[in-house]
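HUMAN: Now follow token order:
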Amino acid sequence: MMKQRVEREEYRLNYAARRTAQRLGWFSIGLGVVQVAMPGVLARTLGIPRGKGLMRLCGLREIATGVGLLMTNDPKPWVQARVGGDALDLGLLATAMLLGNKPLHAAIAAGTVASVTAADVCCERGLETEDHPVTVYDYSDRSGFPDTPDAMRGKAASHGSMKNVPQVAGMAAAERESETRH
């Protein structure tokens, strides 16, 4: 007689999304350091000649969200902050495309930010799955065989009939095994 299947609900971490969040954190820190260290170069490249201060602010925001992602046990709000920061960056780049002196460079940067935004949104969606319980069934009392192991021995090879299965043991079994390999 089979026991009643035991089920319970539990919350599970989405390890793939958490790994992605960590990678996004390192990416944020790297990008932020570049924006803080070379704001003039980036501003001129994007066609915003007087945008050094704005680049530094964006860099500090990136560093803050990156450190937040790496230091927390709950990366969801930090990934959401990255998505919000991406929206700000896209708005800035749209303005640079319209008013700046290098619209093509700003458009290329906007495409890059859009692809990173897609990664941020995917990570955010993956982390949202942690808020939904998963039904877990307990099969610890089962072996996977309908009968005892002794009763099951040889049934797979004989389609359930033990009459046609040769019972070979010892050296004869070893010899038969070596013959089938050659």
User: Anything to note?
Assistant: The mean pLDDT is 86. The longest strand covers residues 6-10.
